[in-house]
């Protein structure tokens, strides 16, 4: 697990995005985030402009992780679906594959049933894409962090972190 | 684990500040938050108790800018230090790329430091990490307090592996940035190492080519053989529950849910409208039937006008030509008005061209009149 970096390329993100936007239209939800279990945001669709998606991703992943621990304590391997109900907005979280979480934020224009239905179907499709990513990432991981990446970062760090 | 997103061109790393309770992990983050320019950092989130003790974690995202065309983002987490929060502490460690161990330099805290370090190793091992391979920096905090242990003593007890270490005072900010800079550097070096390890055959990407385009589509980063495997299915297989045949044009979503401000969905919206207007038949496959019937009157939904012998086509023609004058209304125009008609019917002369309702009306009128006369004259 320690060396299991998540590397996603553009074509896969496009596939993921189109699946998620289809789901949003079908379920008439507000927005959706795809979050890594580690708290990294993978992608987002819909009306997310007013949201701090980075923090949201970290908190949602934390929420999901703590729920997993609760599940373990009551003798379940994992709760695959999580639902937070609010006054106006609600959040539906469902597990995608073994390391991602599909988060759908919706309001009263739709119903939990619709969201659950579409999220379930989408999670299956996304799971297939992630399986493919897992198989391919070994061949593909040739670029991105190049040799001088760390040294270039160091210069930036000196600029940013000044007492 | 480092998350590399080639679509948004981001490299995302997770750094966790670990250590015993009250050793200054949150203070480290608070100092970073207060000193780093606001465009570099995100909002700091603290899941703390009423007494400001970390309950779950603190979270501070930092974006150090674009390096080689990739936005380098770091997520700084702290863990709750108290022993009994081990369950949540372990959760935060999930997917960690680098650890800063914040030790308390006070003599009476040494035991807690050791305990926390052992706990860290246990938790990492449970996640399957190779501890010797994980970037880690030790920070001996609270150096400003009187009577703290010398660094050599601390090193001897806590740093048996010879990790890089710093003396620090998180409240004053001494050593905070040094620690952070070093752990970021170590994490990036490790990420580079693991990336190049896995790409043994050829590390042939020119860094310049990646650095230039920054925002548009990435250069030919995906290997050609992989691209060819992905190519055949840009739309893999249409999902069962979605009825629309074409994703953009025939979406039956209500327009009221579309916020015109947002560009993402506005594109879809404008793409959808012409499709609906020009091709109502194709929409009919997935769209609700009400829409189809409202736009074009199909023969199946047509109900003949009562009493008219005209077919649907004639009816349609008449409606569209905007001079709709039904036959039925023209016929009684021979009489002057409705009142005229009633007067004539009450007069008793039967008219052949009178509608079917007229005789009964006449009869009823006669009966009424007769009853009234009878009552007037007391006839039974």
What does this structure look like?
The complex is a heterodimer of chains A (163) and B (380). Chain A is of the alpha+beta class. Chain A is built from 4 helices and 6 strands. Chain A has one domain: 2-Layer Sandwich (Beta-Lactamase). Helix content of chain A is 49%, strand content 21%. A 5-stranded antiparallel sheet of chain A has the order 3-2-6-5-4, sandwiched between helices. In chain A, helix 1 runs antiparallel to helix 3. The model of chain A has no long low-confidence stretch (mean pLDDT 87). Chain B has 380 residues and is of the alpha/beta class. Chain B has 3 domains: 195 residues, P-loop containing nucleotide triphosphate hydrolases (Rossmann fold, 3-Layer(aba) Sandwich), CATH 3.40.50.300; 33 residues, no CATH class; 51 residues, no CATH class. Chain B contains 14 helices and 8 strands. The chains are: A alpha+beta (163), B alpha/beta (380). At the A-B interface, strand 1, helix 1, strand 3, helix 2 and helix 3 of A face strand 1, strand 2, strand 4, strand 5 and helix 2 of B. Strand 1 of chain A pairs parallel with strand 1 of chain B, so a sheet runs across the interface.
Structural class of chain B: alpha/beta
Top CATH class of chain A: Alpha Beta
Give the % helix of chain B: 25-40%
> What is the overall number of helices of chain A?
4
| CATH C-level category of the largest domain in chain B | Alpha Beta
The secondary-structure element order of chain B is EEHEEEHEHEHEHHHHHHHHHH
**Residue share in β-strands of chain A:** 15-25%
Tally of distinct domains of chain B: 3
The total strand number of chain B stands at 8
Oligomer: heterodimer
User: Quick one: CATH superfamily of chain A?
Assistant: Dynein light chain 2a, cytoplasmic
Number of DSSP strands of chain A? Answer: 6
Q: In CATH terms, what is the architecture of chain A?
A: 2-Layer Sandwich
Largest sheet of chain A: 5 strands, antiparallel
Unreliable parts of chain A: none
Amino- and carboxy-terminal Cα gap of chain A: 36 Å
Query: What is the N-to-C order of secondary-structure elements of chain A (H for helix, E for strand)?
Result: EHEEHEEEHH
User: What is the domain total for the residues of chain A?
Assistant: 1
Computed Rg of chain A: 18 Å
Structural class of chain A: alpha+beta
